[in-house]
Every structure is written in structure tokens, then in C-alpha cells.
Amino acid sequence: MENRPMNLETIPVAILGATGAVGQKLIRLIAEQERFRIAELAASERNTGKTYAEACTWREIYPLPQNIARMKLCSAQKVCSPYVLSAVPASIAQDLEPSLASRGLWVVSNASSHRMRDDIPLLIPEVNPEHLELLDKQTTSGRIITNPNCATVFIALALKPLSQLGVIEHVSVVTMQAISGAGYPGVPSCDILGNIIPNIAGEEEKIECELKKILGSKNEAADFSVTAHTNRVPVQHGHMSVIHVHFAAEISDKELRDKLLETQNIFPGVYQLYDEAFSPQARQNLSDTDKRVHIGRIKTNRKIIGMTVLGHNLVRGAAGAALLNLEAVLKSRELCVS
Ligand SMILES: NC(=O)c1ccc[n+]([C@@H]2O[C@H](COP(=O)([O-])OP(=O)(O)OC[C@H]3O[C@@H](n4cnc5c(N)ncnc54)[C@H](OP(=O)(O)O)[C@@H]3O)[C@@H](O)[C@H]2O)c1
Description:
Layout: E1 11-16, H1 21-30, E2 36-43, H2 52-55, H3 66-69, E3 74-75, E4 83-86, H4 90-102, E5 106-109, E6 143-146, H5 152-163, E7 168-176, H6 189-192, H7 203-215, E8 225-229, E9 239-247, H8 253-266, E10 271-273, H9 282-285, E11 293-301, E12 304-311, H10 315-337
Parallel strand pairs: 1-2, 1-4, 2-3, 4-5, 5-6, 7-8, 10-11
Antiparallel strand pairs: 7-9, 9-12, 11-12
Helix pairs in contact: 1-10, 5-7
The chain binds NADP nicotinamide-adenine-dinucleotide phosphate.
């Protein structure tokens, strides 16, 4: 199957980590839109020079586009497209991404390495678009923009409208995270089949810090506390979190529901609300390109709001988040020029 014909108006992008779970989802999502064109693909050095089809075991349901299958993988260090979508492990992103930014490239990263730097936006366009102004603090000719941890993004999207209802004092999070969140091959099947692993190394700290950065102002973290417990569950795709949000003052059920409905109307195709007692569910509600945050089991108890939040970790939790951030960056650069 051929990818769509090349349109010279499209913006050339490089994908780093192109053979991994997030890299494959980036290729999948780019195939269905017309703004971006994949100009370069890179993976680890051991695969440099191979064709994409030789180096990659394609795991998307969507057929691998033949023009992508034939592309030769280049070295991640040597990409030269103006915009780079990075999906490499954090240990590699640590030095690689600043080195690309110092060569004038704009790097939109899925990795955790630079998310907490005070000159780097940890961006969710619907939540903290003003954090893009942090790009002005970066001194390289290129820039780095990051998207959040794959569970955090959905919790932050859910918290944003709640933060407009009153002063949040504490957020308690319990996650149930899919195995594809660990990349491929990820968690050994002997560990996860018929089991729940009650911790994901490093994940709880990321959720606790990232939520406060995202929900804060561009210069100061939000003033609420966060406690997170993470669990790996035997689900293929989709991170679910149960959150309880503690407010300084009472919030009525009507205030909450009106605010969530208003938010759903402001961001069509982003917020999906459920009243049914057994929704949302990963298998029933998430397609392989699902970009929404699914919110159900909504409860109020005086100063506490509880809800269940679900989203596709590889789509809005990673590849789709990076593409939305790239669009936000391009829009802000266009506004600067005009
Ligand atoms: N999975 C998720 O749900 C998710 C969500 C949000 C963020 N993330 C983050 O996104 C990044 C990628 O995650 P993933 O799940 O896609 O991981 P993955 O499936 O393990 O893929 C890793 C990719 O990085 C490449 N790579 C490995 N070592 C490299 C090196 N030294 N230089 C250049 N490329 C190298 C691999 O290429 P080879 O095939 O050649 O080894 C592969 O393409 C990670 O930082 C992860 O934390 C993942």
C-alpha cells in the first residue's frame, strides 16, 4: 500500500526511534494527515543503512506504507530536517536532543530527559499553550519542546477544567497502565499475564512533578500536592487512572458537570464524557488512532471530586501528543512572522 502522494507544500520531518512503538505510531498517524511529510527515519546505529522494512517488525494494524518500507534509516546524530520528532529512550535523548537543537533543528520529544528543564515547555496545547513562551529562554538556534509522560497527559487534560472550579489542594492518582507503555518487547509475558505489577519504576515521580509543572504558570509549579501509585496491568494499549481531587472549598455536582460539558464543547474531539456505570473501557472505547481523553465514573463528595480517566498511551499519550505540539509550535512561529 502506497502512502499518499508527496505534496511539496508539506513540512519535512525526521523521526528518531522510528522502529519503536512510538515511532511506528508516528508513521501511522502521519500517513493519515497532509501537513507533514516523513523526510528521514532513524533508529539505533546498528540499523543505520538498512531499509525500514529490514530493520523494523511492523506491529501497527495499519499496513506499512511501501514508500516508508523502502526508506533507508539514517544516523540519529546526522538528521537535517528542520523539525524532528524524537522517540528515543531517555538515556539517548539526554545528549542527542540538545546536540540537534544546537544545529538549528526543532526537536519535539517524547522522552522524559528534558521535560523538567525550566526553559523547555512541557506542552499540552489545550492545557498550557502559554508555556510555549519558554522557548524564548533557550539559547540554541534550534529548540526542544516536550510532551508529558503517557499517563500524565490524560490526567492533566482532566484536571484543567477542574482547576477552573476552585483551589485544588491535593490530587491523588492510581494508574492502571498498558504493557505497550513500556515499548517493545516491554514487560516479559511471564511477569504480566494474569497479573498486576504494583509499581512502574520512575513513573510515580514523573506524574507527581509533571502535573505540577503543566498546571502551573510558565515560571512556577502549581501549588497543590500530588500522590501517585502506578500499576502495570495486562492490557495491550490504554492507560487508565482513577483520580481524586481535593479542593479547598465544596464543589457541587452541577458546577462540575456544567464545566466538563463546557470543556467538551470548547475542545471537540478531545474530551469524551461517560455517564454509564461501566465506561470507559480500553477495549471498547479506544481505536488505534484515538486521540481523546475518556472521562467517566464522575463523583462529587463535598470537597472531593473522583473520576476515571482513560486514553491511548501511544496516540495522545505519545505520538499524537508530539504531532499536536509540533502543530502548536508551527502556529506560534507563523504568528511571530506575520
Ligand atoms: N510507549 C509509550 O507508551 C510511550 C509513551 C510516552 C513516551 N514514551 C517515550 O518515548 C520514547 C520511545 O518509547 P518506545 O515505547 O517507542 O520505545 P521502544 O519501542 O523501545 O523504541 C525505542 C526506539 O529507540 C531506538 N533507539 C534505541 N537506542 C538508540 C540509540 N542509541 N540511538 C538512536 N536510537 C535508538 C530504537 O531503535 P532500534 O530498533 O534500532 O533499537 C527504537 O526505534 C521513550 O523515551 C519513552 O519513554 C513512550
